[in-house]
Specification:
The protein has 298 residues and is of the alpha/beta class. The chain has 8 helices and 9 strands. Helix 5 crosses helix 6. The N and C termini lie far apart (56 Å).
Length: 298
């Protein structure tokens, strides 16, 4: 065999190797590989349409809880299948002189996206934020240790939220319990404004025309006093009254889902829905944030 006859097969082999290598480099990781790198990821790849939809990809059920155990009972909404594993959870408190009906719309909305959601009644409609903070934590304790769905919940991935005084209680609970993964105060009301020790990722929703908890005296100072080193965002609903978070609202749902997915599930697929910040206009009168800056979560 001549030297020339040896060169052709070698060139052909190198060409094939190069094409195979190039295809491997160019091919993006499959969803299954992505899921393996984050054991908390739940559900398909998100789109703007999927997080704005009234229901998510998970079929859900609900169960009622009687008063006791440190709070006034409530309703648990949960995904029916555990094929993807356990789920993060959030407890939600209503505001002054309100029942769980004030936050009930978020139950199925969030649960169908892959969370266990506990909308609670408080022991008394007159309970102030500090009491509501205690009751939110009691509800999470019941949810993870006693409830009929406790085996569906990952007790290391918990969040709190609430409306009005329930939102004020949310801020107290998150400041006092840094192990929480996220907080969702909705039109929060609280006499105190200093939450400089809050380390829990917090999305505050304000309502532009709120006359009960004016944003200039409540939601905005709460946001500003949370340290810049903490994950935080402020979403203000254009022309919204104090009750703007108490009925179905696509904008609030979209950001609440993205926030909980990002910080309860460590799911960076939701980063593009939180940052860069949306421009004011339409349903949003103002938005402030730090952008998610926790580096390479598992």
């Amino acid at each position: 065999m001549t030297a020339r006859s040896l060169v052709a097969p070698v060139r052909t082999g190198l060409l094939v190797f190069g094409l195979v290598l190039a295809s491997l480099v160019a091919s993006p990781a499959s969803p299954s590989v992505s899921a393996q790198t984050n054991p908390f990821q739940r559900g398909p790849n998100p789109t703007n349409a999927s997080i704005e939809a009234p229901t998510g990809p998970f079929a859900i059920a609900q169960t009622s809880v009687a008063a006791g155990n440190g709070f006034g009972g409530g309703t648990i909404y949960y995904p029916t299948s555990t094929a993807e594993g356990t789920f993060g959870a959030i407890a939600l408190s209503p505001g002054f002189f309100s029942t769980q009906s004030a936050v009930a719309w978020l139950g199925p909305r969030l649960a169908s996206q892959g969370f266990v959601v506990f909308t609670i009644n408080t022991n008394s409609g007159f309970d102030f934020p500090a009491s509501r903070a205690t009751q939110l934590m009691a509800a999470l304790n019941y949810l993870t240790n006693t409830s009929s769905v406790r085996t569906r919940v990952d007790a290391t991935r918990l969040a709190v939220g609430g409306h009005s005084m329930g939102g004020g209680g949310t801020l107290i609970a998150s400041q006092n319990n840094p192990q929480l993964q996220a907080a969702l105060p909705l039109a929060p009301w609280n006499n105190a404004t200093n939450f400089s020790n809050d380390r829990v990722p917090t999305l505050i929703v304000g309502c532009q025309n709120d006359s009960v908890a004016p944003v200039a005296n409540h939601a905005e100072p709460f946001y500003e006093r949370i340290p810049a080193a903490s994950e935080k965002a402020y979403l203000e609903i254009a022309s919204g009254s104090h009750s703007c978070p108490t009925s179905s609202n696509t904008t609030i749902a979209k950001f609440a889902i993205s926030w909980l997915k990002r910080f309860v599930d460590n799911d960076t697929r939701y980063d593009p829905f939180l940052c860069p910040a949306p421009s004011a206009g339409g349903a949003i009168s103002e938005y402030r944030n730090t952008c998610p800056h926790t580096a390479s979560l598992p």
